[in-house]
Records
---
Amino acid sequence: MRMSQFFLPTLKETPAEAQVVSHQLMLRAGMIRQTSAGIYAWLPLGWKVLQKVAQIVREEQDRAGAQEMLMPTIQSAELWRQSGRYEAYGKEMLRIKDRHDREMLYGPTNEEMITDIFKTFVRSYKDLPKNLYHIQWKFRDEIRPRFGLMRGREFLMKDNYSFDLDVEGAKLSYRKMFLAYLRTFARMGIKAIPMRADTGPIGGDLSHEFIILAETGESQVFCEKRWLDLDVLADDPGYDSDLKDFFAKYTSLYAATEEMHDAATAPAELETARGIEVGHIFYFGTKYSAPMGAVVTGPDGNPVTVEMGSYGIGVSRVVAAIIEASHDSNGIIWPDPVAPFHVAVVNLKADDAECARVSEEVYAKLQAAGVDVLLDDRNERPGAKFADMDLIGIPWQLTIGPRGLKNGVVELKRRATGEKQELPVEAALAKVTG
Amino acid sequence: MRMSQFFLPTLKETPAEAQVVSHQLMLRAGMIRQTSAGIYAWLPLGWKVLQKVAQIVREEQDRAGAQEMLMPTIQSAELWRQSGRYEAYGKEMLRIKDRHDREMLYGPTNEEMITDIFKTFVRSYKDLPKNLYHIQWKFRDEIRPRFGLMRGREFLMKDNYSFDLDVEGAKLSYRKMFLAYLRTFARMGIKAIPMRADTGPIGGDLSHEFIILAETGESQVFCEKRWLDLDVLADDPGYDSDLKDFFAKYTSLYAATEEMHDAATAPAELETARGIEVGHIFYFGTKYSAPMGAVVTGPDGNPVTVEMGSYGIGVSRVVAAIIEASHDSNGIIWPDPVAPFHVAVVNLKADDAECARVSEEVYAKLQAAGVDVLLDDRNERPGAKFADMDLIGIPWQLTIGPRGLKNGVVELKRRATGEKQELPVEAALAKVTG
C-alpha cells in the first residue's frame, strides 16, 4: 500500500475524549472512528489488525477441531425465554421490536441459539462430540460506554460451544479450548494467563479468564512469577492427547483475579500486576441443554441431556489490549504476528529520483515476496514520516535517503527496540524477510 | 474435513416452507438454518461458500484500488436526519431505541455514515480520489420475508463509496466498479449482465443492475444474445486505462430489466430470460455530500463539494443466486471457484481395510497439495453417499471401492456433467489437482 493513497488519518494531538492509552493511540493512529457512543468504524489500518487477530483465532479453533459457522446478530426473544435469561439479562441487552411488533434482540452471546440449532439436527451420541464456533458482532448496551474498544457497545467476539455425551467428554473439550486459547494468545505475541474465575451470568462449575498483563490494565491480578517463563507452544502436547498433564501443569501455578484472590492460600512469591480480560471459558453442564431439551439417544438407547461448555474471545478487545500491553510514548509497538504491515519503506526525499527509484524497487521486491509492506511515498518532512511510522507501530522501518544511497546503504530500524543499522539494500531485505 | 465429524445436517425431504429452489437446496444441503423469519444461521457448509464468495468480492475490490474497512451495524438516527432519509426510508428500516432512549437503527446501507467519516478527515483535493468498502451485515425489515436468502432480513452486503473531485473523476470511478463487478461475477463462474436501472431510493443519474440469468429468476429481463459470448476477463483493459472503450463496448449491447425495457428501441435479436439482481452501482453526484457538507479545498483554493457513487453486491444473495443458476434435480452444482470443497473422496466401504487405507492416503495427499477436500468416511450405504455428494454439489467425486481397487482403479465423476471415468489413483489425483 502507498501512503499517498492510503486512507490513514493520523492525528498529531491526543483527542480529549480518550482516557486510556489504547483508545488514544487507536484514534491517533487512524485505526478507528467513533460513530455513536461505544460504537466504532474500523478504518483500513485498524481493520487490517482486526483481521489478523481474527485469523489467528480462527486457525487455532480449526486446529482444535472446532468448526466455523455464522449465527445472525438479531435473535428472537422467544429463545431467551426458554432459558430464562430474557428477563434476567437486564438493560445491557439491546431489545428491538420489528415492524410486526415481534420482540427481538441484538445477540450479546449465543448459548440459546446454538443449543436450538444443535437439538434440531443432532439426535444420536454417534454425532458427538461437536464444537461449533463463529466470529460475529455482538452488542452490549453499556450504561456508560468508555475506554474505546475496551468497553464498547458493538464488539467482535469469537464464541464457541461444545457438546458432549458425558462430563468426562465435556472436560476434555474444556481442556482443548484451554490449550487453544493459550496457543492463540501466544501466537499473537502476547502472554495471556488463565485465572480461575467466577462464572457470572453464563453459569457453570468451571471457568477460567484469560488475562493479559499490562501496566494500564483495568483490574489487579495475582500470579506466580514462574508463569511468565512458561512456553506454551513448546509445551503443547497436541489435541490427540487427553491433555490432563498439560492442564494440571498450567493450573497448578497460582493465578487469580482480585475477586478470586485469597491471600491465605496464595504462595509467597507472588507477582502483583494489572490485567485485561481477553477471553473466558466455561463448562456449565446442562444449564442450557436441560431447559431447552438438547437430548440425544445414548449408546444404550436411553436419552441423554448433552453436556455443554462455551468459550469466548473478545476479538476487537484483543486489539486494544495488545496496545495497552505494547506501546511507548511514541506510539504502538505491534507484535509481528498482528502488525498491519510487516515493513514500512520510508522514502526520505520523495522528489529525489534515485530515492524514488530504489524505494519503488524495494517496495516491489517486498510485495513479490508476499510481505505486507507500506511505502511512504508522501512529500512530507522526514520527521513527520518517522513520527507516523512510530505511531502506527510497524515492526520494521526501512528508510531510504540520499545520503545513505551515496554510501550504498539504507537504514533499518526495529520499532520494538529502537535499534538502527545501516545496511546494503539486499542485506536489509534479507533481514526483514528472513 | 471428515464427514464422520462434519456438522452437515442434510435432509432427504424438501421442507414444505421453501418455495424457491435455492432455499430448498440450501436447507436440504445443510447450509443454513432459519432462526427467525427472514434470518438465518449459516451452518459450516454454507459458511464456507459464503466466505469463498466474499473473498472473490474482496480481491476484486482490492485490485480495483478500493480500500477495505468496516463500519458498524448499528447507526444513530441523527446521521440519517442530515440526509433526509430517516423519515423517507419507511418501515423497512429496523429502528431501535437504546437504554437511554436514543434513536438508533440497524444499517440498511451506509451512504450517510461513510460521508460523515470522509468529511471528518479529508479536507484537500490532494487526498482524492478515494474508494472505501466494507463487507458487513445489513438489515431490511421486509414485510414478508421469503424465498430464503433471496429476500431475507439480515443479509451480507459488500458496499463501497467513491469520492472524487469532479464529474469526470466520479465517472471513472464508476467505470472501474463496472469492470470490477463484471470481473467479480466472472471469477465466480457465473455471468452477470449489467442492465441500465432505475436509481430508486439511493438516487442519482447513472445506475446499472447486475443480473444473473436463471430460469427460476425473480423478474423478466431482456438482452442481446451477443452478451452471452463476451469474455470480460479476456477483454479487461486494466485499471490504469480510462476504461472508456471498455465501458462503451459493454453498454452498447441492449440489456434491460422489465421496468426499463422499451420494445420500441430494443433490437430484434433479443433474448428474453428470467434474472436475479446480485449487484447495483450508482453515480449520484452530490446527493449526500451537499446536505452533509462533504467539501474539500480544490486546487485553486476554493471549496468543492465531492462527487460520490455507491456500489453494492448482495454477498449472501449471490450464494442463493448461484444455486438458482446452477443446479439439477439431484442438487447443487457449484462452479469450482465457490465450491465449499473442490473434491469429495468417497470411501464406498468404510469397514474395508484396503478401501480405508487408500481413502486415507488420497485424503492426506490432497490436503498436502492444499486442496479443499471432504472425506466421506461414514458407514453408510453407497447410494446415500452418492446422493449426499450430488446434493451438496462438490465439483469432483473420487470414489474408492473394493471392486475398483482390485483392478487398480478409482472412479472420478464430474458433478457438472455427470461424466465418469475409471482411473488409477495417481491419474485421478493429477486430474483434480491439475
Note: The mean pLDDT of chain B is 95.
---
Amino acid sequence: MNGLDSAIRDAGAAAYAAYGSSADAGVRYLTRFRTTDPVVYVKKQGERGILVIPQMEHERAVRESSAAVVTRADAGYLEYIKAGEPRWRATAHMIADLAAGPVLVPATFPLALARELESFHPVVLDAAGTVEGMRAVKTQDEIEQIRSVQRATEAAMERGIALIRASRSKGGILHLDDRPLTAEAVRAEMHTFLLARGCRGIDTIVSCGPDTALPHNLGTGPLLENEPIVIDIFPQDELSGYHADMTRTVVKGEPSPAIREMYEAVRDAKALGASEVRAGAVGADLHYAVVEFFRDRGYESNTQGFVHSLGHGVGLEVHEEPSLGPRGGALVAGNVITIEPGLYYPGTGGIRLEDMGAVTETGFDRFTQYTEELII
Amino acid sequence: MNGLDSAIRDAGAAAYAAYGSSADAGVRYLTRFRTTDPVVYVKKQGERGILVIPQMEHERAVRESSAAVVTRADAGYLEYIKAGEPRWRATAHMIADLAAGPVLVPATFPLALARELESFHPVVLDAAGTVEGMRAVKTQDEIEQIRSVQRATEAAMERGIALIRASRSKGGILHLDDRPLTAEAVRAEMHTFLLARGCRGIDTIVSCGPDTALPHNLGTGPLLENEPIVIDIFPQDELSGYHADMTRTVVKGEPSPAIREMYEAVRDAKALGASEVRAGAVGADLHYAVVEFFRDRGYESNTQGFVHSLGHGVGLEVHEEPSLGPRGGALVAGNVITIEPGLYYPGTGGIRLEDMGAVTETGFDRFTQYTEELII
C-alpha cells in the first residue's frame, strides 16, 4: 500500500484531492502534468489517481501524465456550470462525485474549494503532510533527474566563473574585453547556457563585496577585484521540474585575511556537515553541530555570522523537506539535500559554499563535483 | 478608499490576509516582492499593508516591496515557534495578532492556515475575488510594463519567423544550414533572445502540420513545408512579473486551400472581435459574436473548429480576469486582454492569431503591431 493510501485510510477518508497548477509541487508530483492553469487530482483509496483537465488538454495529458485522465466534461463539471453553479461550487461538486465520501486534502488546499466541498462530504486536513513526505524520499529515477540538472548547473557555474577568471582589474573593477564585467553579464552567461540544456535559471545570485553580506542579495553592477563574489545557482529542468542547487564563493585577486579565514571555516563546516549525514541523523543536530563548530572558530551566530539553516531538501521545489535547520527531524535514505554553511558580516562580506547530494544508509552521496577554490 | 478597504469593510472584517510565494499573483500584486518561499501579507482597513518576511530577506524586502516590511521575529512568529506551536498554527497566531479581528481571505487561502486562524477570529472568504478584480484593471504603469514585454515578444517572434523564412525545403522538410529546422531550434532562438531582454519564455508553442490541430500542443521535431506553423509565445518579465501573449501562424511554401480559407476566417474574426472591444462590452457577447461569425463562414464550433475562448486578461498571470469566453462579463477601461480566435481540424490543421491590448472607453488600444502574413 502506498503512502497516500495509508493516509486516506488512517484519516477515515474515501479519497485524496488536490487542486492547483504545476507550480504546486504536490500537484505536479501526483500528476506529472505541466500546466499553468489549475487542474484537479482525485485518488480513491487503492485506486489509481485521476487527473481532471479541460478537453483541450486531453491528448497532451494522456501522453504526459502518470494519472488516469478524465475531461471536465466527462467528470460532470460542465453540467454543473451549465446548471448555474459558480466555479468553486462546480469544482467541489465534481470532486465530491469522484471521491464519493470524506476527502483528505493537503494543507494548501484552497479554502473556497474546501468550504464548498464540506457541504457534500467531510473535508479532512492532511496535517502530516503526506505528499511532502513522499516527495522528500526520492526514487532512483528522481535522483537521476536531479543529478542531471546538477551536471548542467556545474557546467553553467564553470561558464560564469570562467568569465571572472578571464577578467582583469582596472582601478579595482574587473574588466573583460575592456568593459566592466557585471553581475548581470555573469548571470546572463549562465542562464543562456542553462537554457540550451533545457534548464531555467531563476534569480541566480551573483553578488560581490558588501552585497555578499546579505545571503539573498541578487547582486548587481560591476564585479570588484579582491572582494568575495558569491554565485548561488538553483535552476529547474523545464521538462522534469526538478532543481539543482549549488553555491561557490570566489575572489579575483587578493582576499582580505578576514575573508580568507571565513572561507576556511565555511569549507571545513561543509565537510563537517557532510561527514555527519546518514539515514537517522537529525537535521537539527547537524545544524547545531555547525553552529557549534563556527563558535569554536570564533564566529557567533545571531543576526550576523551563520544566519540561515545548514541545508534543505531539493526536488520539484528548490526548498522542500527535509530541513537541516533548528526544527529538522531525522533524515532518511533517499532524501536529496543541500549542505550550505555560510558566514555573513556587514563591512567584511559573506562566504557561502553549497553542495547537494542524496542521504544513504551510511553517508552522503554527494552529487556536486565542482572544485572549491577561493582565489581564481 | 481603495477596493480592498471597501471589501474588508463590507465583509465586516478587520483586515485582509494572504499567504504564498510570488508564484501567487495576488501576493505578488499586493507586495511587489519576489520570493520562492511563501510570505504573509496582512492589511488592516485604512492602513498600509504589511509584508512579513524572514530576517534574511529584510533589506531586499524594504528595497523592493510596496508594503510595509516586518520581520517574522518582530511579528511574534518565532516566539510562537519557540513555544512549540507547529508552523501553520504559529503563522495563524501571528496573522491573528496583526489583524486583531475578523480576517478576509482570498479563495486560494490555504485551508490549514484558515482552520488555525478560525480559532482566533472569524475567517471570511472573499467570494467576490476583490484582488483578482483589482488586478484586472491595470494602471498606466502596469500598461507600460506589459507594452514593454510585448515589444520584446514581437522582436522574439520576428527572430523565430526569420529562421523559418530563411529555411529551404528538402523533400518537404525545412532545412537551415543543411540541417532540419526543428520546433526546438525556433523555440530556443526565441527564448535565448528573450532572456537577453530580461524575459522568460515558458512553454512557447511552435507546432507544425497535424500538431497544430491541438491548440496546446507544444510542438516537436522538424518543421514542414506547405504546412501551418503556429507560434504562440507568452513570456514573463522576470523583474516586473508581467506577461505578454501573442500568436501568429505561418506557412513556408504553399498552404492548402482549406488552410488559406481558415486563415482568412481567423484573421477576419480577430478584426471583428477587436472592433467590438470597448468598456461596457460583454466578454461572452464578443465570444459568441465570433462563434456566430465562424458559423456564417461554414465553421461550426464544438469539439472541432473554434474550441477555446476568444480571449482572456493578461497581467501577472498569463490567464487572468476578465474572460472573453462563454461566462465573460462586462469589460472595463484598463483591462488588458487578448483577442485570439482559432480554428482546429484534425487532418487539416490549426490556425490561431492573437493580439493583445488595453480596453478603453471607446475601443481597443492594440499593443500588438506585428504583421499578419500567412505565407513567408
Note: The domain at 137-366 of chain A is CATH 3.90.230.10 (Creatine Amidinohydrolase).
